[in-house]
Amino acid sequence: MTLMELQNGLCQSMENGTLMRVSRILYRNPVVVFGGLIQFDTIPITDEATEEAVAVQNDIDVNDDIAAVYEGMNSDSEEDFEATYEAGDEDEDGDVGVEAAVENVVVRPSSSQPMGVPPFMCELDLDAMHAPEFPEYANRGIVDPEDGEFRIGMEYRSRKSVVAAIRSFTISRGVDYDVFESEPQTFYAKCKMYGRGCDWLIRASLIRRKGCWEIRRYNGRHTCTIGTISQDHSKLDSDTVAEAIRPLVESDPSIKVKSIIAEVQSRFNYTISYRKAWLAKQKSVALVFGDWEESYQALPWWLSVMVQKIPGSVVQIETRPLYNGNEEAQGVKILHRVFWSFNPCIRAFRHCKPLVQVDGTHLYGKYKGTLLVAVAQDGNQNIVPIAFALVEGETADVWHFFLRNLREYVVRKDGVGMISDRHESIRAAVNRSGGDWQPPRAWWMFCIRHIGSNFLRAFKVPHLQKLVVNIGYSRTVEEYNTNYKRLEERGEAYARWCDAIGLRHWVLAFDEGHRWGHMTTNLVECINSVLKGARNLSVLALVRATYYRLNELFTRKSAESHERKRAGFTFSAFAQQRIEASMQQAGNIVVHRFDRRNEVFEVRETTTEKVLVVDLARRTCDCGHFQVERIPCRHVIACCANQRLDWQLYVHDVYKMTEVRKVYRFEFTPLGDPESWPAYEGPTLVANPAQRRTSKGRPKLTRYLNEMDSRDMRGPRICRLCGAQGHSRSKCPQRAGPSGAGS
Hints:
- The chain is of the alpha+beta class.
- Among the domains are: 149-229, TATA-Binding Protein (2-Layer Sandwich); 230-289; 299-447 and 520-569 and 683-692, Nucleotidyltransferase, domain 5, CATH 3.30.420; 448-518, no CATH class; 571-655, no CATH class.
- Helices cover 32% and strands 17% of the residues.
- Strands 9, 10, 11, 12, 13, 14, 15 and 20 form an 8-stranded mixed beta sheet that branches. Strands 4-8-7-6-5 form a 5-stranded antiparallel beta sheet.
- α4 (238-244) packs across α7 and α6 crosses α7.
- The longest helix has 28 residues, at 539-566.
- It is elongated and about 110 Å long.
- The chain starts with a helix and ends in a 57-residue tail after the last strand.
């Protein structure tokens, strides 16, 4: 039968005296998805037999578990958007209610998750991420007449495009309209002042034989005037703004809300509220990078394909059961934690410095969480991210999960150093590692910036913070003793606080060279800055951003290292600069040989009369630079020149261009069209409902929330006047005058 016959038949079958017209008929099509679950796509029935799949809820063959498990979490109301992105405090006491009963949950399919690659995912230039100027937007595909008015017969490719054109026209003219009829095949609107001085109306309809929408009726220009002047427009809603700023969000999802307000004002000549602009940004991010709930379901599929396409890559997923009341939902799991590392990064670490720096950064998306990052460095000071993890927060269990996988799959060599902050959860994880992150297999060291912050927080003496940092940077025992004595003279309690840390954990002179001169986690912070925009995205978009950005990094650095090697350079640019500087300073050094094997020398600097010992066999120099960076210092260069020795023998292999090229030798593989990917076999993953942000308001930026590592680092009350324990400055005896009264 024809569609008209079907519509008439349905009307007749409805025993209702009211005049009715069937405007839309939907068919529920069962589809088998993850884990054997059945979901239904709604397909509109038309006379052209076109199908337009719209995802709906699952509800059969799983004892209605899934249908009861996620409702209320997927609302797209403005109130929910406003409540979504508030950054709250993380739970420091372990798991955050993972196995708590969850009610009213609906799992939605992930077939619409976008798999395109916006420019942002490949962007490595931080300055370009915050471009002050906005590109001009292309027209929506319709060339309007010069006067901007509609004409009967104008064609549009879809209902959405014609409504958008009418809305844009209304906003630009400063007028408004009411929708008189809105059907799947017709859109009819009239001016708000229709019948009261203005006869403006417009009607557009779907023309099936042309496959487009066409303006069928138009009364011409508005003849009304706006009685009041408003800074905003009723038709300039968050959806319209979201579509307008889409090119900006594709380039930088962390774009400032103030920039969005300025762009809207420039384009539409209206000043929207901060809330509307912020809400539009969130909707635009969802349009470009995917819906949050669907991204959780698509994540394991993408990761499984990635591992197949790039063999040797590692993915470790931990899940938790999802409950509907007291019963466990079948075929659905909560994504608890995920660790991933790409094979090119795993191979790259073998040719980097044997040093890894780890840190965590908070996510600002719809769900709370933390991104953990491990970073290495090649012989040219280039950062090389080697592993990532999405976790619920920074707890002992979380760090144990990350460090265990990092050690098992990525950092497999012994004798490595690890730099992190002094978070007690990391300490607990290191102690639980079974020696994996303890000597002699590894050396755990602290970030000196965190130590300086902890000291300042404990004693409130900013003028001594720099001295504490200088102690950490001491390259020789003599330098350490000098700085330590200066601190002890200012208060014994300060020195005792430093003693409790442990020398090898933070002082350069006692780390046995495992730091390679790196004192902070700045490399990881650099990665945090690179991923700052991605921290607002859904989980799948964030993981894909790491994939495409690392591919861009490896491609660029591989080309750079190849060009340098082809140009005839033996060492990296960093090492070459260090060596050339040492050669320029080696001319004012007098060398005395102390053994027949040409291994031990005594050198004297003529400018300072300072005497130092150089041991080429042990590769040490009293200045400390030789053993820290593994590059000949000026004293070693002078000894080699004096005895006609080849100084290149004392440059570590990691700085040779042959080794730097090996870092980027392995390439990333394109994943191809998702339509060709194999089906995913496994449970459907959903977000932890307890991790969803619920408090109202705009996001509050957080930075190093974990710097206050633990309360025991604050130390006892210390007098800032005399440095003694047990009293404050206001009650210090030294403040008392001769008569005993406070002076």
